[in-house]
Amino acid sequence: MNKKQRGKFGRFGGQFVPEVLMPAVKELEQGYERFRDDPEFKQELDYYLKDFAGRPTPLYHARRLSEKYGVKVYLKREDLVHGGAHKLNNTLGQALLAKYMGKRRLIAETGAGQHGTATAMAGANLGIATEVYMGAKDMQRQRMNVYRMELMGTKVIPVTSGSQTLKDAINEALRDWVSNVEDTHYLIGSVVGPHPYPTIVRDFQSVIGSEVKQQIMEKEGRLPDSIVACTGGGSNAIGTFYPFISDTEVKLFAVEAGGSGMESTKKAALHSASLCVGEEGVLHGARTKILQDPYGQILESHSIAAGLDYSGVGPELTYLAGTGRIKPANTSDDEALAAFHELSRMEGIIPALESSHALAYLAKAAGSGELGDIVVINLSGRGDKDLETVLEMGAL
Amino acid sequence: MRIPDKFDELKTKGEGALIAYVCAGDGDTAGIVHALIRGGADIVELGLPFSDPIADGPTIQASIERALDAGMNPDRYFEMVKGLGVDVPLVVMTYYNLIFKRGLERFVKDCKDSGITGVIVPDLPPEESGELGGYCEENGVDLIFLVAPTTTGDRLEDILKRGTGFLYLVSRLGVTGARADIAGSTKEVLDRVKTDKPKAVGFGISSGEQAAEIIKSGAQGVIVGSAFVDIIASGEDVVGRLEALAREIKSSLG
Ligand SMILES: Cc1ncc(COP(=O)(O)O)c(C=O)c1O
Fold it and tell me: What is the pTM of this model?
């Protein structure tokens, strides 16, 4: 890549951050360049991914689901990663990078607490002090995750500004970083934020897609016809897709949260489908598609799955959607809930509500034939964390 | 009024500039602006509130939230500014997404038409500012950049080349907000940034004493925000106290 293009995916991405943060993002850029291919760093990360996180995760042939939908369905079992989601792939990578860069403190944002928990795990394991910003409202809704983080020695800091949810937690983490750039690494949880984050997080999550590629070749002797992944910020999606980008015969579906409807009220969207219906803008340091009002004020988003509940999406996904390489889609709260129950009953796997959005796309699209004969669905996490939400929704 | 003309005028009089920040739409903005000017503000920086102000500390965030809740938006902002009828330079401070959404050219034209002669966008780095800078130049509007204690080398050169109006020096790492101790790194930054453009120091100044020290260290102006916004937030004798604080600070800049 030439210098002018650095940190950009087409016209998306970039570094729209206050001047006080510039040295920090530049330092991270340099640190990552220095260590990403360092044999010692890679070896150490491989070790943690294998013996601490439990990789590689299986690629599981969901037999009964396949029969029902007339498509051969494989599930990539990220729900079996330590902590119950793909999030740890990224937090281990970044925490180790921070350690190599000599940082003494990790900060992170979290919505439902999944990324915060994964950061707490990596921080505790590598012995780095960790503080997590979490919307005050989210802390009430996710008390168990707050407790999990605290058990691992992480300090959870309530965010009372704005809508008191994920986007405000990101704002607050950025403000902390502005004040403490010298000794602190901001460990962002998805492929969002200023360059180099979208690239770093993508690279650390690409372990998912690399394993899928090897596993599907072993099992089928060929690539799948399609890959489906849920998309909030987009880290599990791009991590699964990335090793297949140049295999243009493989269709890639990024499934966003359709929420309770595709409309918006004055201050909030009823969904989180920025890739599908968002408009171009700049949020959290990157030019991408975002949910915004006609003036450019950021709308709050909604999804039954807290991990998808974000008003933006990674710039690389926006770019790839623009070129037609990936296909944005969405499934609603109700469709995701139905898929949650279906997988639990038919395969004995309770999926995260986030991942249930990808599963719901199977039900929606299998009939049309657009998924082809073999589909890989990334099961980004397990659903134990969601039982309370599902119970509240009632209907079984 | 253009910003460089104001600095020329002050130079002749041997005074430092008081640049006052408030967020438009939080309280009676016209009354507030006039009070600040009566107290001696030389330039008024009027925030256009954005939903996700990452460069601002708690005081200004809360002000922005009150303004948004009260219905402030870019259309109303420019209408309101048009009606102010003041004879000091007015500067808009806002975040890039509001400018991007409105359209860069339209935004700068709206500035010009409403009497705004400077733009500050804390989340727009110089390397992304070419297009906005072009429209600003065409329309006689200054594009003002921030310089951090950590801005050095090529970045500093680039900012010095692109910035017009004045340079906004951030006194220390962090977000906006009043602080007691600011002197240390300020002098260092002022010495390091070599330019013939005016330098104004902001982030953390709340008293005449601090302001005087900064001018003595070689700045041509001070930017005071959170200290004024605190008064607005209190809701008590707002206009009187704003005018008094502006007067206290301005009188120490002579
Ligand atoms: C299980 C699970 N899947 C998906 C996501 C969405 O994040 P991303 O789109 O970055 O993969 C989350 C976020 O918390 C999650 O916990």
Answer: 0.96
